């Protein structure tokens, strides 16, 4: 039987993560994601996916030192960034710069050091490009700041509110890994040919760039902008549903119940109630939307997905929509590289069949 898009076909065994759509669970190395976001930093979650265990204090300190030392751009990277045309989209920029960094040291087998180096540099690439387009100077990475806090610092040139840093950090932990999705599969296919880490990551970035996979939550932002001006939010949402419109940010192709990533983000935002108007608005819109959907579409499992609260966070941070998918990419880099390393440990080249239906 042909499975279009390989849907439902098991292509590999993994110890990295599991997406349990039926029960609404996301597992990283045996830990439920909602528990991890309550107690781990981005660095600790990345360590868990790469090393398979949560670090102790000494291991974490050594890891941070190496991670933070690799944030700065190499002269080659900076040179490439300086000559790329201004109309080149940011995902293509990231892909091109990483491709240029894949020198002769990048061969088979890929290494954990390469995974850490690439992941550490992606936020710097994004910030450098964004600042250049806006006519601002390159903000040098600050080794005293955490990964997520430093990312915002490089983008803005100033220190962000702690609640904003924690909200974005939670989002980036939640989007590090999500099973054998299209971009992760691309990375593993490339790695299976005994290609290098940079090439595998570039394959994943090219896949993430497609709107069917890495599409930014722009439509959710549009919904929040519209609702912000309404006196009766529920009546407005009812009107949209009755007109046959979708409420963006609700429902998911994999999760048949609550999206565990959305629940984890919501828990974080509940701690920030009253501290940011956009986060407060998102909480109120969710309540009205869920009630509306249950009334007008009974029997449908339409709950908030991660993109809904991601949009609220991006809005609160005043990040331009051009930064949404790149920020997603900066977090998913951890999962991609973990899968490349796992593929290399027990490698078999991917070689599915096709059915000829031509003349």
Characterize the structure shown:
It is a single chain. This protein is 58% helix and 3% strand. The protein is mostly helical and 359 residues long. It has a three-stranded antiparallel beta sheet. The protein starts with 16 loop residues before the first strand and ends in a 14-residue tail after the last helix. The mean pLDDT is 89.
Q: Would you list the SSEs in sequence order as H and E?
A: EEEHHHHHHHHHHHHHHHHH
Kindly report the spatial arrangement of strands forming the biggest sheet.
1-2-3
**Strand percentage, roughly?**
under 5%
**Helix residue percentage:** 55-70%
Main sheet?
A: 3 strands, antiparallel
Structural class: mainly alpha
**Tally of DSSP helical segments:** 17
What number is the mean pLDDT? Answer: 89
Distance between the termini: 21 Å
Ranges where pLDDT stays below 50 over 5 or more residues in a row are: none
- Principal-axis shape equals globular
Strand count: 3
Radius of gyration: 21 Å
Fold topology:
Elements: E1 17-20, E2 25-28, E3 31-32, H1 33-39, H2 42-51, H3 57-69, H4 75-83, H5 90-101, H6 112-133, H7 147-156, H8 162-174, H9 182-192, H10 197-208, H11 211-214, H12 218-227, H13 233-242, H14 260-270, H15 277-296, H16 306-316, H17 324-345
Antiparallel strand pairs: 1-2, 2-3
Helix pairs in contact: 1-14, 4-5, 4-6, 5-6, 5-10, 6-7, 6-17, 8-14, 8-16, 9-10, 9-17, 10-17, 12-16, 13-15, 14-16, 15-16
């Amino acid at each position: 039987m042909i499975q279009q898009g390989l849907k439902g076909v098991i292509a590999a065994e993994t110890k990295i993560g599991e997406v349990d759509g039926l029960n609404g669970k996301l597992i990283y190395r045996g830990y439920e994601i909602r528990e991890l976001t309550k107690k781990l930093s981005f660095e600790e979650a990345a360590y868990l996916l790469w090393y398979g265990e949560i670090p102790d204090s000494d291991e974490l300190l050594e890891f941070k030192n190496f991670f933070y030392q690799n944030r700065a751009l190499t002269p080659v990277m900076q040179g490439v960034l300086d000559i790329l045309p201004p109309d080149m989209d940011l995902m293509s920029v990231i892909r091109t710069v990483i491709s240029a960094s894949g020198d002769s040291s990048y061969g088979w087998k890929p290494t954990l050091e390469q995974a850490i180096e690439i992941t550490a540099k992606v936020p710097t690439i994004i910030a450098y490009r964004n600042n250049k387009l806006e006519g601002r100077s390159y903000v040098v990475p600050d080794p005293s700041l955490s990964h997520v806090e430093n990312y915002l610092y490089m983008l803005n040139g100033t220190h962000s509110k702690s609640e904003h840093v924690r909200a974005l950090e939670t989002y980036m932990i939640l989007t590090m890994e999500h099973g054998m999705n299209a971009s992760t599969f691309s990375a593993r296919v490339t790695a299976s040919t005994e290609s290098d880490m940079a090439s595998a990551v570039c394959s994943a970035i090219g896949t993430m760039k497609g709107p069917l996979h890495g599409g930014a939550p722009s439509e959710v932002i549009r919904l929040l902008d519209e609702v912000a001006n309404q006196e009766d939010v529920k009546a407005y949402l009812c009107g949209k549903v009755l007109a046959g419109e979708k409420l963006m940010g609700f429902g998911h192709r994999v999760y048949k119940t609550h999206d565990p990533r959305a629940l984890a983000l919501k828990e974080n935002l509940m701690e920030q109630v009253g501290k940011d108007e956009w986060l407060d608005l998102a909480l109120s819109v969710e309540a009205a939307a869920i009630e509306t959907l249950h009334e007008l579409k009974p029997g449908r499992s339409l709950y908030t997905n991660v993109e809904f609260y991601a949009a609220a966070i991006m809005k609160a941070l005043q990040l331009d929509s051009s930064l949404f998918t790149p920020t997603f990419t900066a977090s998913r880099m951890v999962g991609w590289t973990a899968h490349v390393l796992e593929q290399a440990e027990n490698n078999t080249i991917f070689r599915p069949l096709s059915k000829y239906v031509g003349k």
